[in-house]
Amino acid sequence: MSSNLRGKKVVVFGGNGFIGSHLVNYLCEEACEIKIITRQKNSKKKIFFANEPGQVSFEEIDYNQSAINKAVSNYDIVFNLIGILAENKNSKFNFVHTEIPRMIAKSSNINKVNSFIHMSALNVNIIKDSKYALSKFRGEMELKKEFSNAVIVRPSVVFGKGDNFTNFFSKLSKISPFLPLIGTPYINFSKDLFKVINFKKKVKFQPVYVGDLSKFLIKMIGKKNKTYEITGPSTKSFSQIFDLILEHKKRTRLYIPIPFFQAKVIAFFLEFLPGQLLTRDQITLLKYDSISKKGLSNLRTVVPNPLSMETVLKTYL
To answer: What is the pLDDT at residue 46?
Structure first.
């Protein structure tokens, strides 16, 4: 896939997560040495890497500048995939999305690594009312100060084996007779009575397959000072994604429209439960369509025929 990886030493922060585990599997096809940096080495998740013995190693660290400096020392290529969808008492957006990328970038600069590739998220540069998006965008700004040649990749929703998106709704459809259409109908309280409710407007996604994203990330090795949006080949609404899941599972469920203001009320109470299935900040993110024409053209420079949900969903759900 990438001849410039032969004999190189690659460190992946967040390599035991959903996207990280897929990326590492693709890296294993190359003649390179891979080290996964994690805070949860003894995770309950089952991860299998198709690697040669000794090709992949794990290192468990606390995320501070000294530990990160040591982890990056003598490595050629650095990937940062660390991210969280919701805050808890141990993980805050500012530290995970802003401070950690800054520290990794600083270490990459100190250790003179050849390539630093950082994964952000689509729309973080335009969303101003989400703590998640603001922390992600600040992270981009901070890491650029420390390592100006960094490559930033902003994907849309990522799907594939082990994801927290399609798998969540598939499991929900198993136990619930209803599935939520968040953001439908769209209600604009600032307009007059006859325009306040819009049943046609829906939350839109342009999901990208994790395998295609992994290939793109690897091809970014050697690039300098670039930012790329990445999206998949087709645009989907919640109902269209649910249709695909239910068709594969041979289930029939009712779709319940939940406008944003009502979804925020529900999320407020869900935030008190363990695991935080839904947060108010996530509802805010859904107000912005996760789509980009430029994102698809960027992906096609590496993957000419990116895979769609219709093709891939049945292989892992």
So the answer is: 54
Q: Which two tokens stand for residue 103?
A: 């520290």
Q: How far is CA 94 from the centre of its chain?
A: 17
Mean pLDDT of 226-243: 98
C-alpha 224/C-alpha 172 separation (Å) is 42
Structural domains in the chain, sorted by start: 3-159+206-233+291-306 (3.40.50.720), 166-203+237-286 (no CATH)
Quick one: which of 110, 116, 118 has its CA closest to 137? 118
Counting DSSP H helices and E strands in the chain, the numbers are: 12, 15
Torsion 57-62-68-69 (CA) sign: negative
Q: Which residues contact 275 (CB under 8 A, 6 or more apart)?
A: none
> Where do we find the tokens 């969808």?
85
250-286 residues labelled b (16+ CB within 10 A) or e (exposed): eeebeeeebebeebbebbeebbeeeebebbbbbbbbb
CB atoms within 10 A of CB 31: 12
What SS3 string covers 14-72? CCCCHHHHHHHHHHCCCCCEEEEEECCCCCCCCCCCCCCCCCEEEEECCCCHHHHHHHH
Looking at the chain, how many residues does it have?
A: 317
Q: How many CB atoms lie within 10 A of CB 33?
A: 19
Convert the pLDDT of each residue in 17-33 to its tens digit.
Answer: 999 999 999 999 998 99
